């Protein structure tokens, strides 16, 4: 659905109303002007005709005289024409611009329209002569047209000016709203600073206050969440680290192969597993609470290299990771670097956990900036594959992880608009599992 | 190597000091930045295990201070801060490696060894031969004619120190520093005792005594 800006809506609505009003007004003014002009001209025509009738009654006394023309100087196309007709219909006298034959044969008093003239037949004072005065239709039409143009055209010409003025006024009136809009749009991508004073109208000041209150609450909530995650990590990791270290040192004191030694090793193993579970639960908690909030620009390749280097060190992860950068040095993306780290670490740990012992996990950098992580394993049954990104769903390799890795990765990917494509088996093989991570608008160099 | 641990978690610090010490390193452990700075002012450490969250400040401050000097001490951050930005920041500020708690002590000593190898001078060969004796610094072993000799951690530490630069004379004080942490009482002739034991294992001609100055590997017969 097409979106419209508020200013466009107001401008178009106001202009539609104004233009429609002007059009209706123009039509009304035109019609009224036409009526008035016609009436005035008709009155003049009638007046001239009736005066001429009186004059004819007193001056002409010779019916049947030859037709004569009254020559007048400076007769033009707009000049009134007249005929004096006797009872037989013979034109006794006419103006030089009147036709030879009578305008009208019917002697009905009043106005009549004949070709090229609007004629008024005056009521006779006596039955001997009738006076017919005709006004050229051309002159009348021109008068009406000019009157209408004078009244309507200024309105039509003023429409662009009205459009420009409405646009100017609406935009100026909405400028504070635009400022507020720009400030609000700048918030969210790691910027939770309150909106500064913007000289807003009263209606928007309350909105600004509400937004600032919400931003303050959000900042406080996120800070609390970050502080909690950091404190929880510190408070849990340090004692776990101490416990694991002490147990390992205790194990060195035990005779090799002794029952006590095996039990100490079991405690060490469970402590390691507890450490991983705590880590996953903390990550899952952070992912569920919207950890991927920031939209900072960073180099994805740096994150990949640091993670591959870190996980490649760990002898517990076994088979190692092979990275194929394909000549790509940097992939600049927008997102939350820490959340990206959590997402990729989970994907890599998942691949290491479930991958075959003789096949390294392969991290391929694609030309479009995607990161493709593949590992060897039996192909996943469709039933499990469909639910892999749900919490506590485990693959079918028999290596039991926390069941949270892909759920965490999927959750973070959704928050950052990152595409996560899972596939099993791999293309051209009956085995394997792959995840392709693609950031939107990544820039590859 | 002489290793400094800066770690405020007591039970962890104890275990790490003990485990790293078992590999023959002289390990000093402090719980505050202030104590660590004081120790660094008096002892020339080769390696530092640095926690970031310390009672009197952030380990990053000490990291930056050290990297501003010309000291070539290797630094491995050991911390509970697990975010990728923390890791990248730590490495960018000059740490050589970064390990997150809880960590396996075996992984820790493996990483210490890996970082130490990177720090080894290009002139320092992984293998050093003195007469019939071959010193494999990478695998921490000494062999004669292919037969591996059984050295204790302390004996290896002396061989490792002397093999860093065959022919160079190391004073008794330098050997003491490499062998013992600050909290250990060192007997006045402890070094002589270990040198004597080493000579019994590797042969009398491998380690020369330079009277009044110290000891060195006999570089006249080696590579």
From TrEMBL, chain A:
Species per Swiss-Prot/TrEMBL record: Komagataeibacter swingsii
Pfam families: HAMP (PF00672), HATPase_c (PF02518), HisKA (PF00512)
UniProt xrefs under CDD domains: HATPase, HisKA
PROSITE patterns according to UniProt: HAMP, HIS_KIN
Domain annotation Histidine kinase: ranges: 231-443
One term of GO molecular function: phosphorelay sensor kinase activity
Protein name, entry field: histidine kinase
Upper classification of the organism: Bacteria, Pseudomonadati, Pseudomonadota, Alphaproteobacteria, Acetobacterales
Tagged with keyword Zinc: no
Principal location class: membrane
InterPro entries given in the database record: HAMP_dom (IPR003660), HATPase_C_sf (IPR036890), HATPase_dom (IPR003594), His_kinase_dom (IPR005467), HisK_dim/P_dom (IPR003661), HisK_dim/P_sf (IPR036097), TCS_sensor_his_kinase (IPR050428)
Spans traversing the lipid bilayer: 6-32, 147-166
Residue ranges of every copy of the HAMP domain listed in the record: 171-223
TrEMBL record, chain B:
GO annotations of cellular component type: cytosol; protein-DNA complex
Gene3D superfamilies, per the entry: 3.40.50.2300, 6.10.250.690, Winged helix-like DNA-binding domain superfamily/Winged helix DNA-binding domain (1.10.10.10)
Chain residues forming the annotated DNA-binding region: 125-219
Name of the molecule in the record: DNA-binding response regulator
Listed SUPFAM superfamilies: CheY-like (SSF52172)
UniProt cross-references to CDD domains, sorted A to Z: trans_reg_C
Domain of life of the organism encoding this protein: Bacteria
Keyword terms: DNA-binding, Phosphoprotein
């Amino acid at each position: 659905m097409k979106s419209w800006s508020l200013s466009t809506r107001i401008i178009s609505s106001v202009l539609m109303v104004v233009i429609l009003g002007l059009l209706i007004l123009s039509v009304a003014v035109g019609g009224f002007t036409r009526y008035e002009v016609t009436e005035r001209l008709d009155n003049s025509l009638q007046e001239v005709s009736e005066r001429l009738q009186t004059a004819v009654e007193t001056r002409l006394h010779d019916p049947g005289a030859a037709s004569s023309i009254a020559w007048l100087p400076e007769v033009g196309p707009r000049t009134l024409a007249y005929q004096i007709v006797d009872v037989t219909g013979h034109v006794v006298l006419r103006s030089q611009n009147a036709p030879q034959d009578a305008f009208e044969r019917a002697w009905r008093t009043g106005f009549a329209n004949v070709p090229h003239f609007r004629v008024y037949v005056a009521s006779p004072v006596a039955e001997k002569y009738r006076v017919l005065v005709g006004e050229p239709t051309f002159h009348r039409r021109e008068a009406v047209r000019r009157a209408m143009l004078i009244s309507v055209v200024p309105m039509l010409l003023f429409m662009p000016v009205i459009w420009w003025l409405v646009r100017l006024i609406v935009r100026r009136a909405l400028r504070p709203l635009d400022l507020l809009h720009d400030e609000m749009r700048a918030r969210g991508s790691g910027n939770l600073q309150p909106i500064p004073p913007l000289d807003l109208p009263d209606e928007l000041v309350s909105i600004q206050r509400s937004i600032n209150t919400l931003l303050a609450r959000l900042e406080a909530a996120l800070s609390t969440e970050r502080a909690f995650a950091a404190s929880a990590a510190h408070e849990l990791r340090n004692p776990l680290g101490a416990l694991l270290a002490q147990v390992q040192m205790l194990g060195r004191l035990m005779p090799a192969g002794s029952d006590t030694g095996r039990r100490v090793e079991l405690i060490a193993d469970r402590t390691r597993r507890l450490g991983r579970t705590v880590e996953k639960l903390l990550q899952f908690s952070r992912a569920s609470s919207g950890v991927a909030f920031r939209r900072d620009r960073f180099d994805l390749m740096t994150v990949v290299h640091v993670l591959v280097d870190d996980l490649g060190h760990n002898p517990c992860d076994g088979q190692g990771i092979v990275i194929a950068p394909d000549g790509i040095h940097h992939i600049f993306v927008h997102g939350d670097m820490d959340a990206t780290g959590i997402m990729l670490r989970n994907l890599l740990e998942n691949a290491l956990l479930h991958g075959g012992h003789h096949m390294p996990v392969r991290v391929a950098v694609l030309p479009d900036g995607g990161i493709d992580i593949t590992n060897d394993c039996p192909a996943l049954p469709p039933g499990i594959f469909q639910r892999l990104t749900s919490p506590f769903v485990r693959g079918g390799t028999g290596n039991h992880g926390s069941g949270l890795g892909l759920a965490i990765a999927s959750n973070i990917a959704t928050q950052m608009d990152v595409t996560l494509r899972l596939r099993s088996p791999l293309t051209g093989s009956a085995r394997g599992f792959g995840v392709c991570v693609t950031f939107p608008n990544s820039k590859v160099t | 190597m002489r290793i400094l641990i800066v770690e405020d978690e007591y039970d962890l610090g104890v275990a790490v000091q003990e485990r790293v010490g078992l590999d023959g390193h002289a390990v000093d452990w402090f719980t505050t930045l202030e104590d660590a700075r004081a120790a660094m002012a008096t002892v020339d450490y080769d390696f530092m295990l640095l926690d970031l969250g310390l009672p009197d400040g952030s380990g990053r401050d000490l990291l930056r201070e050290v990297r501003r000097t010309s000291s070539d001490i290797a630094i491995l951050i050991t911390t509970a801060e697990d975010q990728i930005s923390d890791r990248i920041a730590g490495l960018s500020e000059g740490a050589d490696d970064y390990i997150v708690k809880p960590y396996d002590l075996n992984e820790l000593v493996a990483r210490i060894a890996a970082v130490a190898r990177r720090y080894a001078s290009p002139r320092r060969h992984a293998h050093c031969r003195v007469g019939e004796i071959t010193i494999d610094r990478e695998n921490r072993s000494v062999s004669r004619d292919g037969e591996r000799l059984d050295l204790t951690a302390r004996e290896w530490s002396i061989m490792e120190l002397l093999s860093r630069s065959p022919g160079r004379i190391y004073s008794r004080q330098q050997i003491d520093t490499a062998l013992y942490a600050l909290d250990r009482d060192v007997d006045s002739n402890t070094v002589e005792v270990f040198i004597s034991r080493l000579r019994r294992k590797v042969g009398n001609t491998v380690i020369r005594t330079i009277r009044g100055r110290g000891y060195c590997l006999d570089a006249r017969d080696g590579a």
